[in-house]
Structures are given as C-alpha cells and as structure tokens.
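Open question from group meeting: does this chain pack into something compact, or does most of it stay loose? Before anyone orders reagents, we agreed to write out a predicted structure and look at it together. Recording both the input and the output here so the notebook holds the full record.
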Amino acid sequence: MPLNDRLSNVDELRSWKDQLPLHYEYTAGLAGEKFLRGLKDGKILAAKCSNCGKAYLPPKIYCVDCYVAVATEDFVEVGPQGKVAALATSSVGFDGKELKEPKTFAFVAFKGVEGGLVHLAGGRGLRVGATVKPKFRAKDKRKGALSDIEEFVA
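Structure tokens returned:
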C-alpha cells in the first residue's frame, strides 16, 4: 500500500514516547588546548601564521587568509594589555533571571591580532577605546578555562 494511502487513514497513525540516552564530550582541539594551557599559566596566546604573519585570537589551527596549518609552536603571547572595542551591559543572568547588579562585558582587541576576547570588564574609566588588562585568578585556582581571567580592568 502506498504511503499516501496509509496516511489517509488516521486510525493507523501511532506515536510513542521514548528517550535516547546521549552523552557528548567536546575537546578544545589542538589550538584551543594550547590557548587554555596558556591561560592556566597566566598568558593570553594567539595562533600566528608562519606564512603571512597574521595572528588570530581565539586561536585557529589554519590561517584564514592563506590556508596554511598553524603549528602549536607558532603561538605567540599577546597583551597583557588590550583595548576595549565594544561594551555591553546586562541586567539578566545566563539563567534568565534578573541580576542584583548589572554585569558589563567588553570585546577586548589586542595589537597585531585578528579578533579578540569577549569577557567581563570593570574598573574606573571603562569605555570604548580604554586600555584594559586581565585580572587572573590566583595561580593555584586556575583550571585552564576562560574563567581563569576574572575580568579585564581599566
């Protein structure tokens, strides 16, 4: 019996509820791992193309312009100072609930680097164009995560 004929009889349609137990784990990849290890050491690392010299943050394993693979030994330390390229303030948390105090996020760009980082920011004089530097967690509290930077301060 053709499908259309079978679907015309609504009594034959059935449904059921079920669950598929799925578990995902994502790795940071080669470039991400090198970047995260740098944060654990209190450094911000960018991937630098050995062919054209462009540096990328977040790091990329291939150059966007010339498609050359970027080796992890070609990473360079940037900063620690960067410039605020954009600011946003949120009064709603990641859980959708209103925050007691608004949080300010900055897009921080670094000299000679394509891209940058979006992170919490604060301090007197925080504005677009302000020079900021990362405030890292105490060395014994770092885990190799973006949260190893508490915030960028002006």
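Observations to bring back to the group:
The longest helix spans residues 29-40.
The chain has a mean pLDDT of 88.
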